[in-house]
Specification:
The chain has one domain: Spore Coat Polysaccharide Biosynthesis Protein SpsA, Chain A. The chain is globular. A five-stranded mixed barrel has the order 8-11-9-10-12. Strands 2-3 form a two-stranded antiparallel sheet. The protein has a two-stranded antiparallel ribbon with strand order 7-13. It is built from eleven helices and 13 strands. It has helices at about 40-50, 65-70, 75-80, 85-95, 110-115, 120-125, 145-155, 215-220, 235-240, 260-275, 280-300, and strands at about 10, 35, 35-40, 55-60, 100-105, 130, 135-140, 160-165, 175-185, 185-195, 205-215, 245-250, 255-260. The relative contact order is 0.16. It is of the alpha/beta class. Bound molecules: uridine 5'-triphosphate.
Length: about 300
């Protein structure tokens, strides 16, 4: 039987973003810019380019600016029209990626699992994607990372999770999977351990911010008690389904960029700025100048 197409995606964006305080005291971390676009816009674009038609964004009080970013701005548009700024108007019109976006509020911030739980009605009985709202994924192929998970789902008719190989000393920061290799980049997952000590890690493959889940995750989430950090962990619910439902680990052709972490934000700002032809040469020259200055200071 051909699996049904994946049409829906959930983007959790309700968290406090404590790793990026004080900025996130009043501004959602999902609106942190990477050069000139907020993180969550990259996420919505990835979903749209993967064929997703409907998105549910999970919000919390004080994060309405996210909703505003994806809503029309008639006065601004009028001003741009009057001034003949058609390219900017086109850019604004393209912000939502042509996808239908709706919102739901997470009143108690009980974790990623708690956020996904709120999507039950929106999802119904279909497989669906989950994309973390604070993480950009760049793909090294024409297919975005969420699209790569959808391809695995189509091939095996099973849920899938993006994984990325991390250095051995970093396994204790992530959810790590283990299982049987199906193809060079695909694993039939039989174990998932949250933040293992390096000696206990079944592999170096870390869960990487994108999921393609079966609707049975909702019943599993109902049965999932609060775990680490007193939060409902999505990986705990996924683990409870292992053995009953197949889960494919997909080593992504691409890279995860976690913008909710300060150092990673700084590194990615540089990386993404260098990808832009209008900034590349001047920015590169600036970086070299800064590096030379710092080196000279060190040698003084
Ligand atoms: P994180 O664990 O990185 O988010 O969740 P956080 O709790 O906001 O961040 P820190 O660790 O305190 O800095 C990844 C994504 O899941 C959302 C976040 O908004 C983020 O986009 N999330 C997290 C929710 O929607 N609800 C939650 O209860 C927790």
């Amino acid at each position: 039987m051909t699996p049904r197409p994946v049409r829906k995606a959930v983007i959790p964006a309700a968290g406090f973003g404590t790793r990026f305080l004080p900025f996130t005291k009043s501004v959602p971390k999902e609106l942190i810019p990477v050069v000139d676009k907020p993180v969550i816009q990259y996420v919505v674009e990835e979903a749209a380019e993967s064929g997703i038609e409907e998105i549910l964004i999970i919000l919390s009080a004080g994060k309405e600016a996210i909703r505003q970013h994806f809503s029309p701005a008639p006065e601004l548009e009028q001003r741009l029209r009057e001034r003949g700024k058609q390219p900017l108007l086109d850019e604004l019109a393209a912000i939502g990626g042509g996808v239908r976006i709706s919102y739901v509020y997470q009143h108690e911030l009980d974790g990623l699992g708690g956020a996904v739980k709120l999507a039950r009605e929106f999802v119904g009985d279909e497989f669906f994607a989950v994309l973390l709202g604070d993480t950009v994924m760049s793909s090294t192929t024409a297919r975005p990372v969420t699209g790569q998970l959808i391809d695995a789902y189509k091939r095996y008719g099973a849920a899938a999770v993006a994984v990325e190989e991390v250095a051995p000393e970093l396994v204790s920061r992530y959810g790590i999977i283990g299982g049987r290799t199906l193809a060079p980049d695909l694993v039939d997952v039989d174990v998932m351990i949250e933040k293992p000590a390096p000696a206990e890690a079944p592999s170096r493959l870390a869960v990487a911010s994108r999921y393609l889940l079966s609707p049975s995750i909702f019943a599993a989430l109902e049965q999932t008690p609060r775990g680490k950090g007193n939060e409902i962990q999505l990986t705990d619910a996924m683990r409870s389904l292992l053995g009953r439902e197949r889960l494919i680990g997909c080593r992504i052709a691409g890279t995860r960029h976690d913008i909710g972490d300060k150092l990673s934000f700084l590194e990615n700002t540089v990386e993404f700025a260098l990808r832009r032809p209008e900034f590349r040469d001047r920015f590169m020259a600036f970086l070299k100048e800064v590096a030379a200055r710092e080196q000279a200071k060190k040698e003084e």
